[in-house]
Every structure is written in C-alpha cells, then in structure tokens.
Amino acid sequence: MLISDKKVVSLVYELRKNTKEGEVVEALTDDRPLVFLYGSGNLLPKFEENISGLKEGDNFEFELKSEDAYGDVQTNAIVEVPRNIFVVDGQEDPNLLKVGNMIPMLDREGNRLNGQVKEIGDESVKMDFNHPMAGMDLYFTGKITDVREANEDELQHGHVHSSGSCEGCEDEDCMGKHNH
Q1: Mind listing the pLDDT tens digit for each residue in 131-144?
Q2: Architecture of domain 7-70+136-164
Q3: Hey, what's the torsion of the CAs at 152, 158, 162, 167, to 10 degrees?
Q4: What does the buried/exposed string (b/e) look like for 99-132 if buried means 16 or more CB atoms within 10 Å of the residue's CB?
Q5: CA 20 to 30 Å from 49, out of 7, 13, 22, 140?
Q6: So where are the chain's domains?
Q7: Would you identify the CATH topology of the domain 75-128?
C-alpha cells in the first residue's frame, strides 16, 4: 500500500541538525516508531511531501531547509516575563527556573506553548518561545515500517489512536467521546 491521504503511516528515522553529518537531534527506532495520519496536517508539509508515494520497507533520505521546517528564529518570540508568575502557593519551585528548562505555559488567549528559560534575573525571566529547531536545516534518513488504512475514529478525529482508543490524546473534543 502506498502512502497517500488518510493512510496511517509508521516510520522510523534519524534526524540530524543542518547536514547529513550533523549532530543527531532525534532517533526513532522500531520499538517506538512515529505513527501518524498522513495528510491531516499534523506534520510538516514538506516532510509529508518527501515520503508521499512510498510503501512499507522503503527507505528515505532528504533535507528540509529551515524555511520549510520550523522557520527562522523570531526575535519577538524571546520575551521577558515577570518572575513572580512562577510562584505557586507563595513559593518558587527551584527545579523549575533553571537555564535551559522547557516550561509549558499559556499565552493571554489561553493557547499552550513551550518556552525555554534563557536568563534568570531578580525580577524577570527571559524566555524563548521559538520552536527548539527554529533556524535549523533538518536532515532525515529513515524507513517506512507500515502503511495501513485509517479507521473511522482516526478519520473523524484527524489523528491516530494507539490501541484503538484516544487514551493519551490531548484533544479535548476527542477525550470526551471515549470512556477512559
């Protein structure tokens, strides 16, 4: 079966930073493959474009330039936030505010985003809300391990359900449709 819209694809890969010889950023293995619904908008469009038409057992190797991946580093995504927002029940968690930590946060509209602690001052914390791979070219080598038809729930919800349920799913609409 060939990879096309609305197929569930399983694959493994090694992701390197900037070039084929670059630092390994991520490696997925047969025991923990990436499993996704192709064409549902959950992956980078150029990633999907590069594996379109492949089938189980096919190998792939390609580069995504930063503009086709996570874009350039946006300076307006590096902001100072008041240090007191990290105080809970009158105390600041000393393990939370460390340079390099990724902290899940909400913006003013309630959207979830992750920020990396860059600097810690007396009154404020410099946070970087760029994607950790912004500004990087990405080099993928990998293999397609499975291609199958999506089931009705997966098609309806727009993502793959492991073991037939939405357990672990962060989609609130989806969570309400299943008894866990």
Answers
A1: 999 999 999 999 99
A2: Roll (3.10)
A3: -100
A4: eeeebeeeeeeeeeeebbbeeeeeeebbbbbbbe
A5: 22
A6: 7-70+136-164, 75-128
A7: Thrombin, subunit H (2.40.10)
